[in-house]
Amino acid sequence: MPQKIITVSTRGQGLYEVTAEAASFVRTNGAAEGLLTVFVRHTSCSLLIQENADPDVRTDLDAFFRRLVPPASDPSMRWIVHTTEGPDDMPAHIKAALTEVSIGIPVVGGRLALGTWQGIYLFEHRDRPHRREIVLHLGG
């Protein structure tokens, strides 16, 4: 069963689209039917399938999660114990726990069965840049 690791260089918090890389992997391996599993190998970022037509959706999602889980330095987050890796680390773990680190996408007719406006995103929850690894696994 084909597998590939792709690396995404982030520039801080936000959504980074990886749909093209996933679609290329499926095409390259010639699978007509199957399931693509997308898995991120980290605990302070996550994966989403979300609209990829209007960039305002990504902006609003990022803003929502920043409000939902502020940095550890925010007075509302004084209860956080894990702070040794910076004020964005434990909030990043919480955001990752609220979202997903693995997504399954059906392959139909040799293509990802995503809807018209759907894209696959790495959702970076840390402030500073990171190199994130995503494992693509095609089962059929």
UniProtKB/TrEMBL annotation:
It comes from the Bacteria. The lineage of its organism: Bacteria, Pseudomonadati, Pseudomonadota, Alphaproteobacteria, Hyphomicrobiales. Pfam families: YjbQ. Belongs to the UPF0047 family. NCBIfam families: TIGR00149_YjbQ. This is Secondary thiamine-phosphate synthase enzyme.
